[in-house]
Amino acid sequence: MVSITREQIAVLIELQNIDVESTRIQSFLNGIKPKVDQFDMHIKAVEQTIAEKESIISGLKQEYRLRESDTKDNQEKIRRNNEKLVSVKTNKEYHAILKEIEGLHKKNSIIEDEILQKLDFLEKEEKLIVLDKSELEKLKEEAAQEIAVLNEKGDTEREKLKAFLSSREEIEKTMDPEVIKRFKIAREQTHGSAIAAVKNTICQGCNMNIPPQMYNELQRFDKLEFCPRCYRIIYWGE
Ligand SMILES: [Zn+2]
Fold first, then answer.
1. Which residues surround ligand 1, an ion (CB under 5 A)?
2. pTM for the whole thing?
3. Does the pLDDT at position 148 exceed 80?
């Protein structure tokens, strides 16, 4: 049997409150890095999409320049053929050159349609990329702001946690080591909440009934009692 006083029970309740708050802070602190990583991943994904679109656009521009130089080559050929026309000797040769000129005009007209289509597409894509980039800037700004808030809160919470842990240590020193030992065992068994009030014969930790004799004994606040169901330290909480 471990004897106890009403004051010691009050201290155990305080310790438990510190534990609950410390756990909450710890889990908040643990959550900061994954949140920051998530922002980074989102930004990287958007940056990658933009880079892919830019590479498509630069490929299209290259194609466009090649096609444009094709039309210039064709125009040059047409010009030379026109010159030849002046000095041809036979009718057959004349028609052959005319046919070639006609073919070159047709080719150029097809290429020009193609170029126009590409230009149209390029123009649209470039407008979209400008939008994407401004969205990216917005995203980066928002992320930086939220991360700054998170980090700032993290610093405050870390200080709070430090204060809790040191006050916890001080409080423990004032207690009977045997009581603290039992408290810690109960905390491990119940994964966090080591002490529970009993109200109306019901343990507030597990919502089960306490045997009547134990319930009566609790009112004396003279020894540590444990809930027979959940193993928490229990106290008279009416
Ligand atoms: Zn219980």
1. 203, 205-206, 227, 229-230
2. 0.74
3. yes
